[in-house]
């Protein structure tokens, strides 16, 4: 006897099910990002300020070293 279950082909991917799964995962993620938007913006602003200050201090140190050499 031949097993008919092993000869059957795999079912095609159900796009409706996949779309529902993606929306189900993405919806809470968008909600979390939206609720944390103000904190994320504040963190990005402060970090860009810190980087700008660090570049300014490094430039000042470099200029001071060049002036001492002359």
Number of helices: 2
pLDDT under 50 segments (min length 5)? Answer: none
What best-fitting shape do the alpha-carbon axes yield?
elongated
Q: Return the average pLDDT rounded to an integer.
A: 87
The biggest sheet amounts to: none
Structural class: mainly alpha
Oligomer: single chain
CA(first)-CA(last) distance: 96 Å
Number of domains: 1
Give the number of DSSP strands.
0
How much helicity do the residues have?
over 70%
C-alpha Rg (nearest Å): 29 Å
Could you tell me the strand content as a percent range? under 5%
Strand and helix order: HH
Describe this structure in words.
With 70 residues, the protein is mainly alpha-helical. It has one domain. The chain is 77% helix and 0% strand. The chain has two helices and no strands. The longest helix has 33 residues, at 37-69. The radius of gyration is 29 Å and the shape is elongated. The relative contact order is 0.05. The mean pLDDT is 87.
């Amino acid at each position: 006897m031949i097993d008919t279950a092993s000869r059957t082909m795999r079912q095609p991917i159900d796009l409706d099910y996949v779309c529902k799964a993606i929306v189900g995962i993405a919806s809470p993620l968008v909600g979390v990002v939206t609720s944390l938007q103000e904190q994320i913006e504040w963190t990005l602003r402060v970090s860009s300020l810190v980087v700008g200050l660090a570049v300014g201090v490094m430039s000042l140190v470099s200029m001071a070293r060049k002036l001492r050499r002359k």
